Amino acid sequence: IYPVPTDGDLNISSKLPVNLLIFSTSGTLIHSQRCSSGLTEIDLTMLESGLYFYQALQNNNKIERGKIIIE
Fold this sequence. Notes:
This protein is mostly beta strands. It has strands at 9-14, 18-23, 29-35, 38-43, 50-58, 61-70.
């Protein structure tokens, strides 16, 4: 997942399809998207500047988690 920080356009590179979940700092799910294998571009420009958390899931198993900073 890159670039971090971002201006709202995020790229996800994965060998297998994943579900990306984005949460606010309070833990509220604010965005969910299915990403195919390869490179997927996600538009998060509708979100306010700040800190968010993500989880990437494959077959309902958490494979990665981290932070996203939107400037």
